[in-house]
Amino acid sequence: PEQSESSLDYTVIEISKREIEITAVSEERHYNEGDILSNPNYFITTGSLVEGHYEEVTITSELDHVGTTLNEIETCVIYDANGVDVTKNYAIARIPGILSFVTENEL
Questions:
Q1: Residues 62-94, buried b or exposed e (16+ Cβ, 10 A)?
Q2: Structure pTM?
Q3: What string of DSSP letters covers 70-82?
């Protein structure tokens, strides 16, 4: 019997993560004693999610005195339409906002 050489061709496919940028909202307010400033809002400022995907973002920064602090995004999880976590398919840049309490004279 005749022997034949077989060869295998390989193709390398590189799948890039979808890039998005999520930015926490900044807020500045006049301080009144006992106030706590927080703002859990955010925007996707660069890129977009795949159609049918949705995000859950957690922002819990608080400020309770005159001054500023970063409004940081603690977690961001992206789900597909079936509720499966697909966060690993995204390259997520998290941009903090700034929370500021100012005195009456500073506004």
A1: ebeeeeebebebeebebbeeeeeebeeebebeb
A2: 0.80
A3: EE---EEEEE-TT
